[in-house]
Amino acid sequence: MRKEGLVELLLSDREVRVLGALIEKEITTPDYYPLSLNALTNACDQKSNRHPVMALDEQTVRDALDILNQKGLAGPASSAESRVIKFAHRWQEVFNFDRRETALLCELMLRGPQTLGELRGHAERMYRFDNLESLEATLQKLGERQPPLVKKLPRLPGTKESRYAHLLAGDQPEWTAAAAEPTAVSALQEADERIPRLATEVEELKRQLADLQQQFAEFKKQFE
Asked: What is the Cα–Cα distance from 168 to 69, expressed in whole angstroms?
């Protein structure tokens, strides 16, 4: 097992996405892991469970894999069952993480900074935390590594909870200000989606009311 201190941890955003996608797919879809270059590219670019959403092409993913391979974090997986070259991470060989640490770091790599509650919900597909205390303790353990792999961010104005971020791509101060924007955008998107649904429900209530009024009118006629 290699020691993490010997690994150059400073990755680019693309390398983080490729590595995170490999880790995620090994846990959530083990029957389809390791991944071909095409499958890995699709995993990097998928719109669910990703922030930000990226649009990487196969050459970009291949370039990221080359760098990750140089750093001992990912590379081709030997298999006699397929002629297509497939790729796997070597995360465990470098860091020797447990399942809890892997799940949390993977979610931070794929979605960016998150609160304890967000992390617990998002990481459930990879590891189910019984409570926020055990989750926070795991994050603290990751933050105490040398070098540290997780950082607790200052609370944003108007928010009640702090967020946590991984440090595999280095410390990025812009997270402190820029991360508020997706929340606002998400709220606007939810409102836009809710308006048509409410309009449909109102129309249905109007129709039901008209039916009831007609039934009542017909009922009254029986006594006139």
From this structure: 16
Q: Does 211 lie in the same domain as 101?
A: no
Q: What angle do CA 157, 162, 166 make, to 5 degrees?
A: 120
Q: Would you say the C-alpha torsion 205, 207, 211, 217 has a positive or negative sign? A: positive
Task: Let me know: does 167 contact 151? Beta carbons within 8 Å.
Answer: yes
Tens digit of each residue's pLDDT (9 = 90 or more) over 64-118: 999 999 999 999 997 656 688 999 999 999 999 999 999 999 999 999 999 999 9
182-206 pLDDT, tens per residue? 555 455 555 555 665 666 666 666 6
* Whole-angstrom distance, CA of residue 27 vs CA of residue 89: 12
> 27, 11, 209, 202: which is closest to 106 by C-alpha?
27
Decide if 23 contacts 73 (C-beta within 8 A). no
Structural domain count, the chain: 2
Same domain membership, residue 139 and residue 114: yes
Does any domain span residue 215?
A: yes
Predicted TM-score of the model (pTM): 0.74
Query: The domain containing residue 183 runs over which residues?
Result: 179-224
Record the tokens describing residue 2, joined without a space: 């290699």
Q: Which one, of 72, 66, 113, lies nearest residue 91 by Cα?
A: 72
Residue ranges of E strands in the chain: 35-36, 74-77, 86-89, 150-152, 164-166
Pairing relation of β-strands 86-89 and 74-77? antiparallel
